[in-house]
């Protein structure tokens, strides 16, 4: 039987750490077929973003139409949007899909390296046009504060610092009132790594080990894509959020610290390949960097 087909509507990261490049790896790790509708090209590496080239609105819709008409879309993950025109195009594109299609929105605002990936008008458009359509939204703590209206986006202050005074559960409730069916506030920006899940009734805290942040570029993209994949596979939103937390956390644990001069990319696939290799061949490469081809060899 064919695996579910999951669509990422997101930006491209030329450095291969975040954006659609991370999303496709997360889809492969989850065992679903990944598809993409690219919203913007970024010229990006581990240190910064040197250029952003938005895709014309009509062409964003065209990409979604193409995959919907032939392949079908079992769940959607939405990442970097950039401009209000793109937000509106994505909203139009979602109108093409059956209304029951699970939609996961990661309201990407700032890259790990500090670059602004969403302008002010687009932020407002996300709140009015997209949040009410979401099955799950997955902001990190600074994004949650901005969406809740309590903070302006101030990239320089978005360091990974803990903020004990912030009541994350209250924030989740405030965001839920904006229309999404479920809210996950991810924990990467706090001292303790706890994802907070809210379904409109109960708060659940998803705990786990914190690994050093050295190679966490793409953790949020890996998280939201895994979540969408598991919804497509039939998991409940809470189960999907747990699977997403676990995949993102392992991807940070095995992140590639030696790639680039900044925060290295997370690595969700290599984890899977190593695990398979160890199980199937009873051995791993001393460096642990095996390709899928290596494990397919007779
Ligand atoms: N250092 C870490 N150790 C373990 N898990 C982590 C770590 N950092 C992030 N995570 C997990 O990764 C997922 C994404 O969280 P995070 O808050 O980092 O997203 P983000 O800030 O949107 O990511 P990005 O940096 O890609 O924009 C969450 O499930 C979170 O718990
Ligand atoms: C294209 C893209 N999407 C998302 C992020 C957030 O990590 C990024 N840095 N780049």
From TrEMBL:
Matching InterPro entries: HMP/HMP-P_kinase_dom, PM/HMP-P_kinase-1, Ribokinase-like
EC number, UniProt record: 2.7.1.49, 2.7.4.7
GO biological process: thiamine biosynthetic process
Organism annotation: Solirubrobacter phytolaccae
Pfam families cross-referenced by the UniProt entry: Phos_pyr_kin (PF08543)
Keywords noted in UniProt: ATP-binding, Kinase, Nucleotide-binding, Thiamine biosynthesis, Transferase
Name this protein carries in UniProt: Bifunctional hydroxymethylpyrimidine kinase/phosphomethylpyrimidine kinase
The keyword Transferase is assigned to this record: yes
Keyword hit for Calcium: no
Catalytic activity: 4-amino-5-hydroxymethyl-2-methylpyrimidine + ATP = 4-amino-2-methyl-5-(phosphooxymethyl)pyrimidine + ADP + H(+); 4-amino-2-methyl-5-(phosphooxymethyl)pyrimidine + ATP = 4-amino-2-methyl-5-(diphosphooxymethyl)pyrimidine + ADP
Source species, domain of life: Bacteria
Biological function: Catalyzes the phosphorylation of hydroxymethylpyrimidine phosphate (HMP-P) to HMP-PP, and of HMP to HMP-P.
Entries under Gene3D superfamilies matching the protein: 3.40.1190.20
